[in-house]
Specification:
The structure holds two protein chains of two kinds. Chain A is of the alpha/beta class. Chain A has helices at residues 12-16, 21-32, 128-147, 203-207, 225-229, 232-240, 259-275, 289-304; strands at residues 2-8, 35-41, 47-50, 52-61, 78-90, 100-102, 114-121, 154-159, 170-178, 184-188, 191-192, 199-201, 211-215, 246-255, 280-284, 308-315, 336-341, 345-347, 353-356, 368-370, 386-390. Classes of the chains: A alpha/beta, B alpha/beta. At the A-B interface, helix 6, strand 15, strand 16, strand 17 and strand 21 of A face helix 7, strand 7 and helix 8 of B.
Chain lengths: 391, 340
């Protein structure tokens, strides 16, 4: 399997002059009845986005959109990517937790990008998927047209397949996503992952946009679509593939709702790992405290099956860092990377302009805010630099 | 900077185990490991070395630490260093207790001992303790680390993580910015683990907190049963604005308002609870049990919050506020705690 990502860099002016936001606004209004507007924000602007629902990469697929909303999907082999751009959906609907995304400062995960902010209002909670489908198609058409006569700045070529490097340690990636019902689910190729058994998914399909977030709770504990599509664990494993390790598989799995299901899924993951003769595994998680149980059970099952495992997790160590960082911690989880403490209170720039939210600058109760409310600040896919240490 | 140094009878040159009963004595200037400090920082003035036998201190720990503390305070030091106690248990206790007590008096004090010294588990939360290891061969390194940390504390510097400064973690977690993203770090960590090379988890394992279970109620027919839920069941309109995640409050409501209920919780699929809030707040069943005289009475208030990403320290405060009220109820009390 192969995937080529052509990366383009375009000046903001060029971008702004070639965007048809009217067509997006009209399509959303016509299809959902919701009103929308589009706004550009420069990189590193002193801006805080409020009520962030999701963030998309600015991408187009050759031959079709890079993501699927229909259940039928063949990942494109070539994608065009505006690497300095992100498309962020902001708005409110019942059940969605209002999330903050600062665009400047140490807690801004996407600070270096031009933001295309799609503001939505009067949206019903069952229309999120429809809106994303419209936005996804619009991004595809817009980026396709924009880069038509441009040369990419750089090109990434990924290839993956077996057998490749039998003498190197076989490593798998256990990609635990949250899909526990409405407001907190993840889609693979347009189908909700709720209740699905662990399954093998091509890493190139994931980089090609196979996963879309439908998770609107716990801002600090969810992965936006852009983070799935740019998953750095997968990129890192592909980079090391055939050099220091043999990247055998991605096992996509969900955090279950009952203890029995959590145990069953952990055992199923271990069986799949054994099936591909994995010697090592990396596990990431998505979701709040209950999904740490899934993480720990999965690590434990893998270690019991003889698969050496390392995990990525953020901490819930209290505002002062004096609480137990994890709600549960099996002794076999002896190789964990921390992405920071979501309970930590940080101060955002008080002069920042607030875009989104109800009431403009009143959208934030305070400029002092827990990281748990800041989207992607303690990135669960290990895409940030933050971590914690003992003190 | 004025420094006072504390050592036990052995490192103070009085004698070994046979002199462990030696009472407190003060020598002017630097004795034993305090002399190493002069090598590390020649401009430092060690005004006194305070020496006490390990048995003398530990036989009557509290009063004797008070005595040592008062003696040290009379020298008006800028910083106090104690140890290293290495793996020695009684010496470790003396160092830990003294550093903790001096801290309570607002004096900058740093001790040192091996991280497996039994005293570490007692004092590490309140005392800065440099990890000296077990071998006196590292005495110079330990004293240098003690001095570096003590000087930074005295100058009001922001003390960072334990690994960077060489002290034994006090049970706190602080944020650090790494050079590499987590995804790169985890792949490297796994490769080291697979190769059998040393690696260090960024989250060391800790034993989980344990909770004492109350004895069972002797007679439910005599008991008051209290309903507590973290399932986000609120009166219609959520009048106290209990947040659906990271709730900041737990609220008590009279049962009389339970005729119109709603659900506000961001952590589970609330459709079924909305259909029938009694699925989470089983007031209907409890009232039937009360009518059938199977329980004494239902407490006339219920307590509710949304247990979703709530920091543990806040959850403990919620629990304490409920317990404070329940302690006022006469007779035996049971709590039906429903969680989602």
């Amino acid at each position: 399997m192969r995937l080529t990502i052509r990366h383009f860099r375009v000046p903001p002016d060029y971008l702004v002059g070639r965007i048809n936001s009217a067509s997006l606004v009209a399509k959303i209004a016509e299809t959902t009845g919701a009103s929308a507007s589009v706004q550009f924000v420069q990189p590193e602007a002193s801006v805080v986005l409020a009520d962030v629902l999701d963030v998309f990469p600015a991408r187009a697929g050759r031959g079709g959109p890079p993501w699927s909303f229909s259940g039928q999907h063949e990942a494109p082999e070539v994608m065009d990517d505006l690497s300095d751009v992100a498309v962020t959906l902001v708005g409110r609907f019942q059940g969605a937790t209002p999330c903050i995304l600062p665009l400047q400062g140490p807690w801004a995960p996407l600070a270096n990008r031009i933001q295309v902010v799609v503001r939505l209002s009067s949206l019903n909670s069952d229309q999120d998927w429809l809106v994303k489908e419209i936005v996804g198609q619009w991004i595809h058409e817009w980026v396709s047209s924009l880069v038509k006569n441009l040369e990419p700045e750089w090109v990434e070529n990924f290839s993956w397949g077996r057998p490749v490097a039998e003498h190197l340690p076989g490593v798998i990636y256990v990609y635990q996503v949250q899909s526990q019902g409405p407001m907190r689910r993840t889609y693979l190729n347009g189908i909700a992952c709720d209740g699905r058994d662990p399954m093998m998914v091509s890493p190139l399909a994931i980089l090609g946009g196979a996963i879309i977030s439908g998770n609107y709770v716990l801002c600090g504990q969810r992965n936006a679509t852009i983070f799935h599509a740019e998953n750095l664990v997968i990129r890192q494993l592909l980079q090391q593939h055939a050099r220091t390790l043999d990247f055998r598989a991605v096992i996509l799995t969900t955090a279950a709702s009952s203890e029995a299901d959590k145990r069953t899924i952990a055992d199923q993951v271990a069986q799949l790992a054994t099936h591909v003769h994995a010697e090592g595994a990396i596990v990431t998680k998505e979701g709040g405290g209950n999904t740490t149980v899934d993480l720990m059970l999965t690590i434990d099952a893998l270690e019991r099956a003889g698969v050496k495992t390392a995990g990525v997790v953020n901490e819930m160590a209290g505002a002062h860092g004096d609480q137990s960082p994890l709600i549960t911690h099996t002794p076999t989880a002896n190789a964990l990377v921390s992405t920071g403490n979501v309970d930590q209170v940080v101060e955002l720039s008080p002069n920042a302009q607030v875009i989104g939210g109800i009431g403009g600058t009143q959208a934030l109760d305070s400029w002092r805010i827990e990281l748990a409310k800041v989207h992607g600040s303690t990135n669960l896919l290990g895409m940030g630099l933050w971590g914690c240490r003992d003190a | 900077m004025r420094v006072v140094y504390y050592v036990n009878q052995f490192f103070g040159g009085i004698g070994s185990e046979d002199r462990a009963d030696a009472p407190l004595q003060v020598r002017p200037g630097a004795i034993g490991p305090a002399q190493a400090l002069r090598v590390v920082e020649p401009r430092t003035e060690v005004v006194a070395t305070v020496i006490a036998g390990d048995n003398w201190v530990n036989t009557d720990l509290g009063p004797r630490i008070d005595t040592i503390t008062n003696t040290i305070l009379s020298y008006a030091p800028d910083v106090v260093l104690a140890g290293p106690a290495f793996g020695a248990g009684r010496y470790g206790v003396a160092v830990g207790a003294l550093v903790s007590e001096l801290g309570r008096h607002g004096v900058v004090a740093v001790g040192a001992m091996d991280r497996n010294n039994p005293a570490v588990s007692i004092y590490r939360r309140e005392a800065y303790l440099i990890d000296s290891g077990t071998s006196p061969k590292r005495m110079g390194d330990s004293v240098a680390a003690m001095w570096k940390l003590a000087r930074a504390l005295a100058q009001g510097e922001d003390i960072g993580d334990a690994e960077t400064w060489g002290y034994i973690g006090r049970g706190y977690r602080v944020s650090v910015r790494h050079d590499q993203p987590g995804a790169v770090r985890v792949v490297n960590m796994l490769l080291r683990k697979l190769a059998g090379e040393p690696f260090a988890s960024e989250i060391p394992w800790r034993e989980s907190e344990t909770f004492l279970q109350s004895p069972p109620l002797k007679d439910l027919r005599q008991a008051t049963i209290v309903l507590v839920t973290d399932g986000g069941i609120v009166p219609c309109g959520n009048p106290d604005h209990i947040e659906g995640s990271m709730a900041t409050k737990i609220v008590r409501y009279p049962l009389s308002v339970a005729t119109c209920l709603d659900v506000n919780h961001g952590g589970y699929d609330v459709r079924f609870a909305r259909e029938n809030p009694y699925r989470v707040l089983p007031l209907d069943s409890l009232l039937r049990l009360q009518e059938a005289e199977m329980i004494g009475q239902v407490y006339p208030f219920w307590f509710t919050t949304a247990g979703n990403a709530t920091p543990v320290e806040r959850a403990k405060m919620f629990a304490q506020s409920v317990v404070d009220e329940l302690n006022q109820i006469p007779g035996s009390v049971g709590v039906l705690l429903t969680s989602t």
